[in-house]
């Protein structure tokens, strides 16, 4: 979190993490396409021949809240391939919340597990507490063959503490819901740690309603398991 009292600007950093080709970049591209032009900044993508994203995609969203507090939400992805782990760790620095994008295909179970363990390790190496980090999990690629069933995912969600979302990012399904779910968790954590509502006159219920409206959540069906 970066807070500029003089400019009354709060910047929140959200990172999309997961194994290679699980749909991290596709999530950001879908968000960029779904939100209104006045709510989005320039989407920057760097690609290489061996991984879809070399460094990060940056998508700043801006909302206004309270007594003129401007909240900028910056979205990043990390490269999925193991050879880029140093870059993953770099992008994680200063993260306020994380969306872990898992591949729903059964064949990718081990890749999901390895990426999740890698996430926890990199958080620790960056001095971030994995237990306190706001985290949501998205099971993407629900349209692919041989995927984990809804009941399997629901059961995993009941056993865990993180909100779980289902998505088909290529069709824009579930991506906004995942983002809003992560924003809610992250805001509540920041509010608990920094009392932003009291300092800036931000009312949480109204803020979250404004974010949902600004991102067009009403246009898509919510599909989250908690």
Strand-helix topology:
Blueprint: E1 2-4, E2 9-17, H1 24-34, E3 59-65, E4 69-77, H2 85-92, E5 97-103, H3 109-125, E6 135-140, H4 150-159, E7 164-166, H5 175-194, H6 196-200, H7 204-215, E8 224-225
Parallel strand pairs: 2-4, 2-5, 5-6, 6-7
Antiparallel strand pairs: 1-2, 3-4, 7-8
Can you put this structure into words, describing what you see?
There is one protein chain. This protein has a single domain, classed as Rossmann fold, CATH 3.40.50.300. Strands 1, 2, 3, 4, 5, 6, 7 and 8 form an 8-stranded mixed sheet that branches. Helices cover 37% and strands 20% of the residues. With 226 residues, it is an alpha/beta fold. It starts with a strand and ends with a strand.
Give the rounded overall mean pLDDT: 87
Low-pLDDT stretches are: 218-226
List the total number of helices: 7
Q: Helicity range of the residues?
A: 25-40%
């Amino acid at each position: 979190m970066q807070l500029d009292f003089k400019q009354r600007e709060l910047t929140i950093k959200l990172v999309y993490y997961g194994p290679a080709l699980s749909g991290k970049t596709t999530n950001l591209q879908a968000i960029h396409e779904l939100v209104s032009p006045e709510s989005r900044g320039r989407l920057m993508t760097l690609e290489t021949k061996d991984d879809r994203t070399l460094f990060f995609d940056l998508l700043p969203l801006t909302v206004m809240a309270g007594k003129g507090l401007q909240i900028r939400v910056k979205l990043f992805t990390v490269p999925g391939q193991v050879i880029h782990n140093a870059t993953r760790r770099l992008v994680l620095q200063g993260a306020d919340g994380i969306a872990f994008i898992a591949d729903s295909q059964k064949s990718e179970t081990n890749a999901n597990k390895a990426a999740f363990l890698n996430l926890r390790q990199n958080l620790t190496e960056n001095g971030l507490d994995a237990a306190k980090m706001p985290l949501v999990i998205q099971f993407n690629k629900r349209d692919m063959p041989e995927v984990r069933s809804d009941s399997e995912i629901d059961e995993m969600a009941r056993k865990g503490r993180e909100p779980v979302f289902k998505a088909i990012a290529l069709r824009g399904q579930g991506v906004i819901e995942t983002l809003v779910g992560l924003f809610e968790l992250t805001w509540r954590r920041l509010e608990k740690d920094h009392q932003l509502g009291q300092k800036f006159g931000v009312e949480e219920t109204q803020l979250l309603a404004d974010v949902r409206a600004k991102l067009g959540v009403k246009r898509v069906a919510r599909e989250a398991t908690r």
